[in-house]
Amino acid sequence: MTKTERGMLRSAARARGDKTYTTGQPCARGHDGERFVSNYSCIACMSENSITWARKNHARLKGGMVAWRLKNRPRVSASHRQWLSENRPSTVIHKANRRARKTASPGRLSKGIAEKLLALQRGRCAGCRSLLNSKFHLDHKEPLAGGGTNVDSNMQLLCVPCNLSKHARDPIEFMQSRGFLL
């Protein structure tokens, strides 16, 4: 492919508003030939160069990020709070998995378990059957402290008062104390 033909491919991609185009020819390092419209650069080479630079300049990058976060603390806090509120089920699962790793309990919760349990329990607390709002706790039926596992089948959703009163008790003992089991 001649230089003129490559330029024509690039100009056509630019006219369409594309960010990348393919020459059909490998770059000097042998990559597939996909390039940026803006500067003819091979995308894979640019990525490799960025990774290499970041590894060599890790302390500089880290220092800059820390300095920016300190300078913009209210903005970072607000952004973090917003992310947590928008991704509450993910954070709940992450915390449960982390706690299980710390206690060396086997198993790992799958993504979306909170939504699955909410549908299975029809939006109700497993302890008192009250409607769950956005404030619910993901609870291990058989507590980790009592040798329970961190798997999807050992999970339930409880309202905040039920979970705080359950603590690390056996599920049968807990339900008997609530008057549900004899």
Secondary structure category: mainly alpha
Radius of gyration: 27 Å
Residues in helices, as a percent range? 40-55%
- The second-level CATH architecture of the largest domain is Orthogonal Bundle
Number of domains: 3
Give the strand tally: 4
Q: Order of helices and strands, N to C? A: HEEHHHHHEEHH
CATH topology of the largest domain: DNA Binding (I), subunit A
The description of the largest β-sheet is: 2 strands, antiparallel
Strand order of the largest sheet: 1-2
Q: Could you list the spans in which at least 5 consecutive residues all have pLDDT below 50?
A: none
Q: What form results from the Cα inertia axes?
A: elongated
CATH class of the largest domain: Mainly Alpha
> Kindly state the mean pLDDT as a whole number?
88
Q: Oligomeric status of the shown chains?
A: single chain
Number of helical segments with 4 or more residues = 8
How far the N terminus sits from the C terminus, by CA atoms, comes to: 83 Å
What share of residues are in beta strands?
5-15%
